[in-house]
């Protein structure tokens, strides 16, 4: 169960930390108000608790990636927009020197695609430490490509070990945990998340020749 979801065990505020993206809380609040939602209504739509949403908006807690993906979907925006990245709309080229990292729960993320597209593309680095949070569950699909290190992907209870060049493509509605399989070396991978609307569209496309 993702952090902050309704029914999840509450966590002490002593573990809370200021947001790594200045202004994120206010952007989340304005996005919610822009849809005419109270905190209670937003909690009902997202499945996140009122207390968790309040902490995010007050920047008393860093959001997890699944929470950001859920909020972006509900508020009809993108993770990059919520993080305050000021790209030039539908960018075709993103230079490495312009890709500033975002840190949350020990993970490091870099935007690897335009913030205005239907798919969210990120470059991710996971530290060499066991995963401590619950399994991630959120609507859509995920595609992973390991670029360095060893990734331990636990998908719906089954453990898969992936090395550089290995790929995983799965329904992100299945419980999944991603962590470095090496106790001393981080793992890096590219990740693309497709929202449900994009998944539904791709299902309507004709199959490639020979299939």
Characterization of the model:
There is one protein chain. By secondary structure, this protein is an alpha+beta fold. The chain has two domains: 17-82, Orthogonal Bundle (434 Repressor (Amino-terminal Domain)); 118-203, Jelly Rolls, CATH 2.60.120.10. 23% of the residues lie in helices and 25% in strands. The protein has a six-stranded antiparallel beta sheet. A three-stranded antiparallel beta sheet has the order 6-5-8, with no helix packed on it. The longest helix is centred in the first third of the chain and has 11 residues, at 24-34. It is globular. Residues 6-19 and 198-211 have low confidence and may be disordered. This is XRE family transcriptional regulator. Residues 1-22 are annotated as: Disordered. Keywords: DNA-binding.
**Class computed from helices, strands and strand pairing:** alpha+beta
CATH superfamily of the largest domain: Jelly Rolls
Task: Return the CATH architecture of the largest domain.
Answer: Sandwich
Number of domains: 2
Mean pLDDT: 79
Helix content: 10-25%
Shape: globular
Count the helices. How many? 6
CATH topology of the largest domain: Jelly Rolls
Largest sheet: 6 strands, antiparallel
Low-confidence stretches: 6-19, 198-211
Number of strands: 9
């Amino acid at each position: 169960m993702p952090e902050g979801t309704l029914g999840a065990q509450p966590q002490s505020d002593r573990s809370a930390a200021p947001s790594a993206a200045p202004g994120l809380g206010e952007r989340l609040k304005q996005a919610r108000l822009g849809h005419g939602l109270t905190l209670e209504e937003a909690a009902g739509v997202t499945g996140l608790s009122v207390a968790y949403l309040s902490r995010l908006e007050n920047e008393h807690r860093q959001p997890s990636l699944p929470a950001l993906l859920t909020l972006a979907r509900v508020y009809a925006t993108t993770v990059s927009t919520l993080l305050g990245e000021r790209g030039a709309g539908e960018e075709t080229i993103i230079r490495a020197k312009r890709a500033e990292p975002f840190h949350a729960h020990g993970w490091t993320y870099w935007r690897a695609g335009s913030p205005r597209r239907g798919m969210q593309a990120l470059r991710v680095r996971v530290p060499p430490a066991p995963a401590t949070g619950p399994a991630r569950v959120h609507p859509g699909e995920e595609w992973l490509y390991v670029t360095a290190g060893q990734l331990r992907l636990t998908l719906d209870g089954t453990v898969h070990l992936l090395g550089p060049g290995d790929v995983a493509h799965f329904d992100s509605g299945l419980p999944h945990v991603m962590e470095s399989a090496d106790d001393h070396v981080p793992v890096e991978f590219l990740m693309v998340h497709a929202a449900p609307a994009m998944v539904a569209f791709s299902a309507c496309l004709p199959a490639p020749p020979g299939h």
